[in-house]
Automatic annotation (TrEMBL):
GO BP term, pick one: regulation of DNA-templated transcription
Gene Ontology MF term list: phosphorelay response regulator activity; transcription cis-regulatory region binding
Pfam family of the protein (one): Trans_reg_C
Annotated source species: Rhizobium mongolense
Record bears the keyword Membrane: no
CDD domains with a match to the protein in the record: trans_reg_C
PANTHER family: REGULATOR OF RPOS, TWO-COMPONENT RESPONSE REGULATOR ORR33
GO CC aspect terms: cytosol; protein-DNA complex
Transmembrane segments: none
Stated name of the protein: DNA-binding response OmpR family regulator
DNA-binding region: 130-230
Keywords: DNA-binding, Phosphoprotein, Transcription, Transcription regulation, Two-component regulatory system
Positions of post-translational 4-aspartylphosphate modification: D54
């Protein structure tokens, strides 16, 4: 693979390049924001199979690089950072990042994550989603990626729509955090990473803005995962395994 590495820390950059476990891969290093923008705008970005971008650069922000890349290319891109809240990681995924890796990291793991993103990008097919589902009295149009209630509309991000789609495939049944993370977030579940919880909370807030009663239909099954209760069954299901509804 031809890989673009945007990293201003010489030690980190040298460690990645020298420890990269695939000898045949070619890594090109760019150490600043402005040079990276020139690479993107010159269409040279399309010559790379994947990119690794540091969030914190001395003359700019890796998240802005990501947004700029996404206006020009669908190249698999992983953000790396020495810090980052679950909310900031969720924002990066919403903006189109394929993964978000915290420092310090194993170079072998970084390589595996990038290879997986490139493989998925090459093999992915458009997913056939159900057109519509119900969350209590709130309708969810997955084609438009929107929540609808009595003439009011709230948009959903792509990842939020995938989460609801995955929950709707198992109506009334618990979806584990591992299952949701794998099929909606395209990553293995890590209990230290609260991105999944952040997204569930986001979806609940949006539903609650439209209809506070309907938010009860997205239930937490403590220690396991989440479930979407079919409207015909009602939110107060006696057979729900220890439901909890934090927001």
């Amino acid at each position: 693979m031809d890989i673009l590495l945007v990293e201003d820390d010489d030690l980190v950059a040298r460690t990645i390049i020298e420890s990269w476990p695939v000898p045949g891969d070619n890594i090109r290093l760019i150490s600043n924001y402005k040079q990276c923008l020139r690479t993107i705008h010159s269409a040279e970005i399309d010559f790379f199979d994947g990119a690794i971008v540091d969030v914190n650069l001395p003359d700019g922000n890796g998240l802005e690089i990501l947004r700029t890349v996404r206006r020009h290319s669908d190249i698999p891109l992983i953000l790396i950072s020495g810090s980052g809240s679950p909310e900031s990681r969720a924002t990066a995924l919403d903006a189109g990042a394929d993964d978000y890796v915290m420092k310090p990291f194993s170079v072998r793991e970084l390589q595996a994550r990038l290879t997986r993103a490139v493989t998925k990008s090459e093999s992915i097919r458009p997913e056939v989603l159900p057109c519509e589902l119900a969350i209590g009295s709130v309708r969810c149009d997955l084609t438009r990626r929107a929540l609808l209630f009595h003439g009011k509309t709230l948009p959903l991000t792509e990842l939020e729509a995938r989460l609801l789609s995955e929950l709707s495939r198992n109506p009334g049944r618990t979806c584990s955090k591992s299952q949701l993370s794998k099929h909606a977030c395209f990553r293995e579940y890590d209990p230290r990473d609260k991105t999944l919880e952040v997204y569930i909370a986001r979806v609940r807030r949006k539903v609650e803005q439209l209809d506070p009663k309907s938010v009860e239909y997205i239930q937490t099954v403590r220690g396991v995962g989440y479930r979407l209760v079919p409207p015909t069954e009602g939110a107060d299901m006696s057979n729900a395994p220890q439901p909890k509804n934090p927001r």
